[in-house]
Amino acid sequence: MNRISSLKALPTALIALGFAAGALAQAPSSNAPAADRTNATAATQDARDIPAATGRARTGGKSSLSHADRSFVEKAAKGGMAEVELGKFAQEHASNEQVKQFAARMVQDHSKANEELRSLAQAKGVTVPGGPSHKDNHEMSKLSKLTGADFDREYMDSMVKDHKKDVKEFQKEADKAKDADVKNFAANTLPTLQEHLKMAEEADAQVSGKQSTQKKTRTSMR
Known about the structure:
single chain; 222 residues; mainly alpha; Ferritin; 9 helices
C-alpha cells in the first residue's frame, strides 16, 4: 500500500523539480564569467555618462561659480540675446544706412559671443536663460511702434545706454571675477563692446544731430 502511494506521488515531485530547474536556469549566476559582469557594469556606467559624452550638463548639477560670476553669466546671456534680436529687427526697420550697418554688426558679433558664453555656462553648470529680459522685451515692443527717423533715434539711443552699461560690467568682471574662464571671457569680449559703444555713439550723433562723445572730447582738448 505504501509503495502504491509513493508511486502516485512521484509525478508531482518530478513536476516540482522541473519548475525549480527552470527557475535556476533563468536566474543570473554569480559564477558567470568575470568579463560578462564587467561588460554589464560598463554598459550601466556608459548610460550614466551620456551627458558628459554629449557635452550636456547633468540635470540638477550644481554650478561651480560664485554667486557674482554666475549672475554675470546669466545677465550677459540675456543681454547678448537681446542685442541679436534687436539687431535683426533694426536691419529690417531702420531707415538710416549707418544704423543698419551697426545693427548688422550687432547680430554678427553678439551671435558669436553668445555661442562662446553658452559653452562656458554649460561647462560651469549654469542654465542659460531662454531669452532676453523683460526690460529688453519692453524695448522691442516700444521700437516696433516706431518707423523711419523716430525708430533710428530710439534704437541708437538705446544702444548707447546699453553699451555704456555693458562696458562697465564687463570691465568689472574682467578685473574681479573669481573664475578664470569667466574672467577671460569678460576680458576678451570687452574690446568688442568698447568698439560697439564707439560705433553706437557715432551713429546716434548722426541720426539725432548730437555731437558724439569722441568729437566733444577732441573739441574740449583744443
